[in-house]
Amino acid sequence: MFREKYIVGIGRDKNENVGLGEGSALPVGVPVPWPSATPPTGWLKCNGAPFSAEEYPKLAKAYPKLKLPDLRGEFIRGWDDGRGVDSARLLLSSQAASILEHNHEMHGWTGNTLMARDVYSSGSSVFAVQLSIGDGGLLYSWKDGSGTTNDSKRMYRTNHVSSGAGDGSPRNIAFNYIVRAA
């Protein structure tokens, strides 16, 4: 039985063999990841190109602005549709990259005092500055004549090691997004 179906399939249109031909279960306009640079017959690349409503009337119903979405180098994200996760987004809108506001915790200080000096004295007030360095950071503070610390700053060196990428994308595999046009 398998052999008969296999033999019948030989010589047919390659689109039919992979279920992309006429009568495909996929509706016109649905983006599909495709493992080739060239889309099959009846399909167009999602590259932002305009198209004709006369030539592709069903596609024009899915994309009324008569322009395909440009999905080259993009991730598809589900539309919020009232959920409240990204409520300002419009259907088919694009969004720039973003990073959530966040903090990096800095721990400890193991620096040694490099210098502690009186820098100014006037009457009973002596102003002292302390400079410490350690862990790649810097600490300075100044005290008035009564020994009260008026200001203290800690500056830590942090390292950002880049992976070399020009964007903040997760691991991925590149496919050519295409849409059924007719």
TrEMBL record:
Name the InterPro entries on file. Answer: Phage_tail_collar_dom, Phage_tail_collar_dom_sf, Phage_Tail_Fiber_Structural
Task: Specify the domain of life of the species encoding this protein.
Answer: Bacteria
Which SUPFAM superfamilies is this protein grouped with?
A: Receptor-binding domain of short tail fibre protein gp12
Domain named Phage tail collar: residues: 29-76
In Swiss-Prot or TrEMBL terms, this protein is called Tail fiber protein
Record the organism: Escherichia coli
